[in-house]
Amino acid sequence: MYVRFWGTRGSLPTTGRHTLRFGGNTSWVEVRTVDTLVIIDCGSGLHNLGRALAQSCESVRGHILITHTHALNATCKTLINES
To answer: Strand pairing partners for 65?
Structure first.
């Protein structure tokens, strides 16, 4: 199993020098097994995963789990489609 935290911020993404070390993306986690990808919470860093998947040209079966809702979760589908 592989687990990666793509974002650990609170409700709003932030940018700037103060976020270089720990990042500024809102919360979401990528969990992978041999043949499955699970995305937990769809934070603002999801766009980075979409770009990485597009560059790798790999075919991935995936699931999205939303543990709580707010405006950024509603953009999840948009972030995936724009990648």
So the answer is: 40
